[in-house]
Design goal:
Elements: H1 3-11, H2 14-33, H3 37-48, H4 69-96, H5 98-102, H6 106-110, H7 116-148, H8 155-163, H9 165-183, H10 186-209, H11 213-219, H12 229-235, H13 239-260
Helix pairs in contact: 1-7, 2-4, 2-7, 4-8, 4-9, 4-10, 4-12, 7-8, 7-9, 7-13, 8-12, 9-10, 9-13, 10-11
Length: 267
């Protein structure tokens, strides 16, 4: 990769420690809180007392899943990790093009001997690498927690669950990049991207909470429907879902580069 890739990587390495460390701290905290099976059983009993429809809000189809240490981490950590990284994804997506265009300096950057395609592809590639590294780095919190905890965890399954965060995060980054190129205004891209991500989450929540043919059909367009952290921790990666998310991300990145090459730069 070229100079733009290396520069973007160097300038944003702190995201690995900040976001990866913060996410890892959440996992560590959960493992330190759960000191024995009585704590897990207490949480399961509490959720059992709630209406069945509310379980979908917590990313659960039943409380049976959280009656094991691994299942509890899937409930308390992985169920929310993707939504937390949604904030990171939108910020990163805006940084690829929108922030500099909104500040009126993108035209100066493009006056240098570098093609538009080269610039956007290398910046996207750098953020893909940073995203993968910060997600893997967050696993360190779970690893430290497993050492300090008296509970027994299947760290192989938890590592797979951690890797499963990457495809969904890339889709949210790609979505934001696409809208930032399409609308050319940072605030518009931010609003639309955030609205779609939040809508996607709540559609998945409603579909998990209630059996409805219309909701099930709409849920197919929710990225969270292909995340399914509980199933991944229990059974391993669902390669079909991973492939769908990666293909969607690749198409959005490709469309962003194509569109960026064919429109004027905002001043």
């Amino acid at each position: 990769m070229g100079a733009i890739f290396r520069y973007t990587l160097r300038q944003n390495m702190q995201a690995i420690w900040q976001w990866g460390g913060g996410l890892g701290a959440l996992g560590l905290m959960l493992m330190l809180i759960v000191t024995d099976m009585d704590v897990i059983t207490g949480y399961a009993d509490l959720l059992d007392a709630m209406p069945e429809e509310m379980l979908g809000f917590f990313g659960l189809s039943s409380t049976e899943m959280i009656t094991s240490p691994d299942g509890f981490i899937a409930f308390g950590f992985f169920a929310y990790a993707l939504m937390i990284l949604g904030v990171y994804a939108v910020a990163v997506g805006l940084d690829v093009v929108a922030n500099e265009e909104d500040a009126g300096v993108l035209d100066v950057l493009l006056s240098l001997p570098v093609s538009r395609t080269r610039m956007i592809v290398q910046r996207i590639a750098a953020y893909v690498v940073i995203t993968a590294l910060l997600v893997v780095f967050s696993f360190g919190g779970l690893l430290v927690g497993s050492v300090l905890s008296d509970m027994e965890y299947n760290m192989g399954r938890l590592f797979i669950g951690t890797l499963n965060i990457i495809p969904g995060t890339l889709v949210m980054i790609a979505l934001t990049v696409f809208f930032s190129v399409l609308f050319r205004r940072r605030k518009t891209a931010l609003s639309v991207s955030a609205a779609i991500i939040i809508f996607s989450y709540f559609i998945n929540f409603l579909a998990e909470s209630a059996s409805n043919a219309v909701l099930d059909m709409v849920n197919r367009f929710s990225l969270f429907a292909y995340y399914d952290s509980q199933r991944v921790v229990r059974e391993g990666l669902v390669w079909g879902d991973v492939a769908i998310l990666l293909v969607v991300a690749a198409l959005l990145f490709g469309a962003s580069a194509w569109l960026f090459n064919r429109r004027d730069v905002g001043l």
